[in-house]
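hi! just following up on the protien thing from before. the input was this:
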Amino acid sequence: RCVCYGLGRFGRCPAARYQLAFLLLLLDELRVPPGRCALFDPAFSAREAAALRALGLCLLPENEEGKHGVDGAATLFYMVHCGKALYNNLLWSNWSPAALSKLVIIGNSFRGIEERLLSRILERDYSYIAKVLKGVEEVALPSHPRYLDTFNDTSVHWFPLDKLQELSPEVWDCVEEPMYQDCEDLEIIRKGE
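and the predicted 3d structure came back as:
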């Protein structure tokens, strides 16, 4: 399965078109049928939604705010240039070694997030990203001069079960839903906004 968040207005934006093209090539390479790929972006126009359906892709009916569970199935999350809260929510909704080991994320580098944020802000606002840093493997996508703005800071992330099981048991105890009250740069569109 595949879930894509935050693709953007590909009818207007060349970078979003390249990201869509890469997604389609990736689905083909991984032999994921288009009907097993669900997308959501509140910015999609009616014409863009129709184009995605014509490609055989599914549109999620509502804004999940990134809170999509893997439900025991291997799932690729394609989230290029999404906000940190979306990644944090995704981790929270799959917060167990069994679930996390079933997901792969193509999106913003977690190491880059760690480098750019003060550790107290990372731990306060994006605690699930902070807690999983020692349990994730990450490989950056190779850069290409033509697509620097399209895939910059993009990595493939996966969560090996053995690495997750090495994390301290206390890591898995806190399962409070992220709220983001004190977050100054919240990059997520909430339900109803």
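Residues 2-172 form a domain with the Rossmann fold fold (CATH 3.40.50).
The chain has one domain: 2-172.
cheers
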